[in-house]
Design goal:
There is one protein chain. It contains eight helices and twelve strands. It is an alpha/beta fold. Helix 4 packs antiparallel against helix 6 and helix 6 packs across helix 7. The radius of gyration is 19 Å and the shape is globular.
Length: 300
C-alpha cells in the first residue's frame, strides 16, 4: 500500500510517497509562490499529487499545511498572511475535486512531529516538542504518541507567543511575536535594518554572509540565538517535555548556531528544566510530508 504526503509551506510544497514500512519511494517538490494567489497554489498541489501518483497505486492522500487546520473538516481555520487568503480554504474538498481518494489534512508542524514520533527521534521520548524554524516559527507537542491540537486547532502556535511586549509588528496583528525574532524571515529583516544598503532577500544569502564572517550578520545571528534560547526556556516551563526536536528550513544551517543555542539554553535554565534534550529532526525537511503520508495511512 502506498500513500502520498504533501507539505504546504510558505516557501515550497514538498510531496512524498511512502509504503507501509514508512520507506520513501518517491519525492517531488514545487515552489509555493504565495504571491500568485491561493488558486494557483492549490493548482501546484494538484499537479504535484498528479506527478507522484503516475507510477503507484495510491490508497490515500495526507496534507500538512501551514495554518491552523480543522482536522474534522479539512478546512484552514486560520492562517496569517504568510499564506495569503488561506483562511477558509478546504484542503480536503479542493483535492477531492481531482482525486477520488480518502484525503486527510492537518497542520504541517503536527505532521512533522508525527513522522518523528513514528520514524525519527521522537521514538525515544514519552513526550517532545517539535519546533519548526523556517519562514515562521511553530511547534507541536506530542505526548505518548498523541499530538495535542487544542480547542481551536491552535495548540503549538508558539510563533505568536509574545517574546517582547510592544515589540516588532507581526502580520498576525500582535506585536513582539516569537517568529519576528527567531525565523529565517526575521534574520533577513534584522540584517537589512542594520545595513541600510545592499539588502539580502533570503536566509541562504544571510548564511553566506555568516560564513564570510560578516560582522553585521554575526551580530544578528548572535541575537537570534539569544532570543531562541529565551523562547525555549519559556516553552519549557509550559510543556516540560523530555526533548525538543528541531526541523524546518533553518535546521539545515545548524552548524552556525546549534552549539551556542544548546550552551545558552543550559546556562540560563533553572535546575528543573536544565536537562531537557535538544536535537535536530532525524527526517530533516521531509518530516512534514512523510508525516502527512503516515497520517493518511493510519486513518484508513
Amino acid at each position: 500500500m502506498y500513500t502520498i504526503g504533501i507539505d504546504i509551506g510558505g516557501t515550497k510544497i514538498l510531496g512524498t510517497i511512502i509504503n507501509t514500512s514508512g520507506q520513501v519511494v518517491d519525492v517531488a517538490e514545487s515552489l509555493t509562490r504565495v504571491q500568485d494567489g491561493k488558486e494557483v497554489v492549490m493548482g501546484r498541489v494538484i499537479q504535484l499529487i498528479d506527478r507522484l501518483s503516475q507510477n503507484y497505486e495510491i490508497a490515500a492522500i495526507g496534507v500538512g499545511s501551514a495554518g491552523r487546520i480543522n482536522m474534522t473538516s479539512g478546512e484552514v481555520y486560520y492562517a496569517t498572511p504568510n499564506l495569503p487568503d488561506w483562511t477558509g480554504v478546504n484542503l480536503v474538498e479542493e483535492i477531492k475535486k481531482r482525486f477520488h481518494l480518502p484525503i486527510f489534512a492537518d497542520n504541517d508542524v503536527n505532521t512533522a512531529a508525527y513522522s518523528e514520533y513514528c520514524y525519527g527521534n521522537g521514538r525515544h521520548f514519552p513526550s517532545f516538542v517539535f519546533i519548526s524554524l523556517g519562514t515562521g516559527v511553530a511547534a507541536s507537542f506530542c505526548q505518548n504518541g498523541q499530538i495535542q491540537r487544542g480547542a481551536h486547532w491552535s495548540a503549538g502556535e508558539v510563533g505568536h507567543m509574545i517574546l517582547f511586549p510592544n515589540g516588532k509588528q507581526c502580520n498576525c496583528g500582535q506585536r513582539g511575536c516569537f517568529e519576528q525574532y527567531c525565523s529565517g524571515t526575521a534574520l533577513v529583516r534584522a540584517y537589512n535594518e542594520r545595513v541600510h544598503s545592499n539588502p539580502i532577500t533570503n536566509a541562504q544569502a544571510f548564511f553566506v554572509l555568516v560564513n564570510q564572517n560578516n560582522t553585521t550578520a554575526i551580530q544578528v545571528l548572535d541575537q537570534f540565538i539569544d532570543d531562541l534560547s529565551i523562547g525555549l526556556i519559556n516553552l519549557s516551563h509550559t510543556f516540560d517535555p523530555h526533548a525538543y526536536i528541531f526541523g524546518g528550513g533553518l535546521i539545515q544551517t545548524k552548524d552556525y548556531w546549534w552549539d551556542s543555542l544548546v550552551t545558552r539554553f543550559q546556562e540560563r535554565s533553572n535546575d528543573a528544566i536544565q536537562h531537557i534534550e535538544l536535537m535536530p529532526a532525524a527526517l530533516n525537511n521531509r518530516a512534514g510530508a512523510i508525516g502527512a503520508a503516515k497520517l493518511a495511512m493510519d486513518q484508513l
